[in-house]
Specification:
Length: about 160
């Protein structure tokens, strides 16, 4: 983000405005997200974090999908997929109060994410809380997108 040009910010801004979850955001908030957010393009099967980890980042799904897995043991051998997060969903709200992650998150397919580091997310939250409140709706920060495709039920059960 430090080396990001104004042209880069404009490209990111345009891309975020295309995501229904961000369309209600104040332009100043979107601009700040463009300045501090990182774009990540991840392959299928990448574990972003494990249940019990202390979080350092918040994420929004721009493309693709991720499985949310929970386990009753510390070895995570019994992890069960409880849902799948799709485009327009966000997760990682535990960074606001440094609580352990409630689930393991794994990319279900190639996915594009917006990642914001804890210090930046906390600063955005303090300044733009009224616009961001929907990002933290339980469970796992599902954002309103106007469709029923935000959460894909686990097809294996």
């Amino acid at each position: 983000p430090l080396e990001r040009s104004s042209e880069d910010v404009d490209i990111i801004f345009t891309r975020l405005k295309e995501v229904k979850a961000f369309e209600k955001f104040h332009p100043n908030l979107l601009h700040q997200i463009c300045l501090c957010g990182y774009y990540e393009n991840l392959e299928k099967g990448i574990t972003l974090f494990r249940q019990g980890d202390i979080g350092t980042n918040w994420y929004a799904v721009l493309a693709g999908s991720l499985d949310v897995k929970v386990s009753e043991t510390s070895s995570h051998q019994d992890a069960v997929t409880i849902c799948t997060l799709g485009i327009g969903t966000a997760f990682g709200e535990s960074i606001l109060d440094n609580t352990p992650r409630h689930a393991t998150i794994v990319t279900r397919e190639s996915s594009e994410l917006l990642r914001i580091e804890q210090k930046d997310f906390k600063a955005l939250w303090e300044k733009y809380r009224q616009y961001m409140a929907g990002l933290l709706a339980p469970p796992y920060g599902v954002m309103e997108t106007g469709s029923n495709n935000d959460r894909i039920p686990d097809k294996e059960n």
